[in-house]
Design a protein that fits this description.
The chain has helices spanning 14-28, 63-66, 77-83, and strands at residues 37-42, 45-51, 53-54, 74-75. The protein has 91 residues and is α+β, with helices and mostly antiparallel strands. A hairpin with a 2-residue loop joins strand 1 (37-42) and strand 2 (45-51).
Length: 91
């Protein structure tokens, strides 16, 4: 699983620590070998979140470049989180 960040002599606030622990939780749910997560926050409010994901649509990539290894193509957590933003928050 994942190990939660503990408050102590850390310069992070309780809110920041909670957000990091939430990101760790989302990252643990990723199916990729290297697990990452991102949380989009505005004014202390979580707007969107996501982890990195496999992207296996072979029609979007040139097979000669990737030699058919579509399982290695991933969507970054940051991009996936931005795509999950509600339309009314994008300005």
């Amino acid at each position: 699983m994942y190990q939660e960040l503990q408050l102590g002599k850390d310069p992070l606030s309780k809110k920041q620590t909670a957000l990091i622990n939430r990101a760790l939780h989302y990252a643990a749910q990723s199916t990729c070998r290297r697990r990452h997560a991102a949380i989009a926050v505005k004014s202390g409010r979580v707007l969107a979140y996501s982890n990195n994901k496999l992207r296996n649509n072979p029609h979007q990539y040139n097979a000669r470049i990737f030699d058919g290894h579509y399982s290695y193509i991933t969507i970054h957590a940051e991009i996936a989180a931005l795509r999950n933003l509600p339309p009314e928050t994008i300005r």
